[in-house]
Specification:
The chain is mostly beta strands. It is 6% helix and 47% strand. The strands form two sheets. Strands 2, 3, 4, 5, 8, 9 and 10 form a seven-stranded antiparallel beta sheet that branches. Strands 1-7-6-11-12 form a five-stranded mixed beta sheet, with no helix packed on it. The model has no long low-confidence stretch (mean pLDDT 87).
Amino acid sequence: MRKRRWPAAPPPATEGVAVHGPVELVTSRDLSLRLSEVVAHPTGMLLHIELTARGRSADLARHETRPLDDPDDPSARWSYLAVNVRVDDVEGVADPRHPHSPSVPGAEGASEYHSAPHYWISDYPESGTITLTVGWKAIGLLPRTRTITLGPNPSLRPTR
């Protein structure tokens, strides 16, 4: 198994083809996580993930992603949704692009945190299958692994 990191990057300017989605990864009273869409491109794929946290999990998520004013303050630690992607024999951490959006108060004054990061994976599986492991322990979301069948990359098919 080869290791690599997929840095946060925009997808190619060409339009992609939606090949999968949505898939619920976690649904609970305080947390919902879903892979909303996978978009294939000739040079890779774009993963769209949506996270919604409520109550204490939302408060923790806001605390973990707060702006860090003083880089020398050792108490200013932060974390975010950890996404690990396996494509064929390559596995690694994917860095988010547009990592979070403003959280809003939920119903009845309960707090809510919503984030919809995108992950550019510069490989598309020859096997047509990816394995996602997603978690954020600091807010109570233990890592979950899911294998997803995408099929062949339609953006590489010749057109008639």
